[in-house]
Amino acid sequence: MRSHRSDASPRRRGPRAPLTVAVIAATVAAVLLAGVHFLGGPSTAETGGSASPAVSGPDGSGTGEPGLSGESKAVYSYQKAVRESVWVGTGLDSDGDGKEDRVAVDIVRPGEPAAKGRKIPVVMEASPYYSCCGRGNESQKKTYDAKGRLIRMPLFYDNYFVPRGYAFVAVDLPGTGRSDGCTDAGGRIDVQSAKVVIDWLNGRAHAYTTRTGSQRAAASWTNGATGMIGKSWDGSVANGVAATGVRGLKTIVPISSISSWYDAYFSQGVQLVGSAPTPGTLIRTVETDATGARCAAVNKPLGDQAARSGDWSPIWSERDYVAAAGKVRASVFVVHGLQDLAVRPKEFGRWWDALAKAGVHRKIWLSQTGHVDPFDYRRAQWVDTLHRWFDHELLGYDNGIDRAPMADVERTPDHWTTDTVWPPRAAASVTLSPGRGAKEGVGTLGTSPGTATATFTDDQDHSELDWAEQAATSTPDKAGFLTQPLGKALHLTGSPELTVTATPTTPTASLSAVLVDIGPATIRQYGSGGLGITTVVGRTCWGASTTADSACYKQTEADTTHVTSTVFSRGWAALGTCADAHKVAALAPGKPCTLTLDLAATDHVVPAGHRLALIIAGTDRGFAQRAADRPTITLDLARTSLRAAAVGGSKALTAALG
């Protein structure tokens, strides 16, 4: 047994060693730049695998006619599938060369439907990773023969869905692979260039048979119904395209993806370590050398405007898809790791809530992993669920997935539960208040408002894991507040908020807040090289193969560790944003300031016998950039409270607290 690990993945010095600044910096940069959680050589050998599951449906047709109650079946030849490339005109000239940018679109589709005059739907992924960095656990890239003809697509989507009557379309984002133009880290160029491919699939844009030629290519083989999928940057672009309201996009499946790029770099004014220094630097990693030289003028403003001060600027407005959630027409199947320290759970939480307000049809999977694709932690169930989802959303099958539970949540490694809706209907807002305890720095957490103060001094060498392990110990660098051992389990869900009134001794101050489950548990080792999984001997196969494009992938299993405390939600803020959430202002030492700190979305059950802890501190080493000052901060406990959603509401909270 062995684990494939990227050297850029987060490691611990033992099972609970704190994450270092350098490790987190390398991790997030690698994740956002490469879109993979492992680096390993691609393999096309079909060894040690098992055949993909047989597919059947009571209708027996496998033709995907709307309203049928079965499922699409593997009735078409993958070996004889049409493999073609086109270049779609974007209507942009992002690199300023005087010519319209064209993006490369590689297509794998079954030939039989077109021969019979049938039109088919599309599964599409738009990515910057196909040439630079690779996709998935085995870092697969697109490959071509000597004449530039596509012979292999990364991942299993084409192998599995093409025989079932779908086309798979893979788009090189501008400035990457075989595309023209400049990529711009989730901005207008990225989003428009992916959107226009959907326009082409629906007859509203032009494509060409070559990168520079004039011969047109028509998408006469498709009905235009498109589902976008992708992890990390890829899924982020899917979010952005959905937020344009483009017609023809029926569903998106964003996996561990960004909904607001500001939150990938900052948290309420605090610069997050591990983020690429600027979006411009991020871009230069995926662009080709020639493109990078051409696009320097495009990249420079991104660096200039991504102010390290933490202030909101126009580049963040351009990359804030949450603000446009009301335009989304597509259904959304969100997948995210609750311990994803790269694309943090706040990204899906805000997006999910905005989509709910817009009335968007949604589904969600939440794992205990870090930045990992569900294909690598729940493979069989994932392929089956994704198959049913696309059959329903793109082919129109009445297969019941729209009536199935909305949410699948991993409670302990490989143990999943379902909820009819998420957050659960029984969840209701509760308020927890910190109070002064018998020991300095170790207070109480309950339903009665506090009446005293608590003081701590920012220690930039300590992290959330240090605080959690010493939650019940008096230390000068934190203010910890704990419940008594719970009499009954307490299920917290959704996005908690901490309102805090704090008085600093310096003109700058950072605040961190974490929620901790104090008690023994076995968890996925999300801070390890595999981010909660390990790759093992053997392969499983999902779809059909050719000699150049295997449908067989290395198996994985949970990588677990035993702990005595678990941080399950976290957040950071510059106290200087208390007057204006979009601007970090200098503080007046000795003057109190009140702000509401957003914690990451979560879904966690604190078992009976465990204690729930709220810890408030300064700089969180490994997450927050070191501040200029090291203030002593005094909390006004009478004006500090945590608002969260508990399943069962106040009655459940009262029962848990005894």
Task: Characterise the protein shown here.
- With 658 residues, this protein is of the alpha+beta class.
- The chain contains 15 helices and 30 strands.
- A twelve-stranded mixed sheet has the order 8-7-1-2-6-3-9-10-13-14-15-16. Strands 17, 18, 19, 20, 21, 22, 25, 26, 27, 28, 29 and 30 form a twelve-stranded mixed sheet that branches. Strands 4-5 form a two-stranded antiparallel sheet.
- A hairpin with a 2-residue loop joins strand 11 and strand 12.
- Helix 1 crosses helix 8 and helix 5 crosses helix 6 (233-242).
- It is globular and about 80 Å long.
What gyration radius follows from the Cα positions, in whole Å? Answer: 25 Å
The helicity comes to: 10-25%
Low-confidence stretches: 1-65
Terminal Cα span: 46 Å
Q: Beta-strand level of the residues, as a percent range?
A: 25-35%
| Lateral arrangement of strands in the main beta sheet | 8-7-1-2-6-3-9-10-13-14-15-16
Number of strands: 30
Instruction: Round the mean pLDDT to the nearest integer and report it.
Output: 88
Helix and strand content put the structural class at alpha+beta
The total of helices stands at 15
Largest sheet: number of strands, sense, barrel closure? 12 strands, mixed
Give the overall shape, derived from the CA principal axes. globular
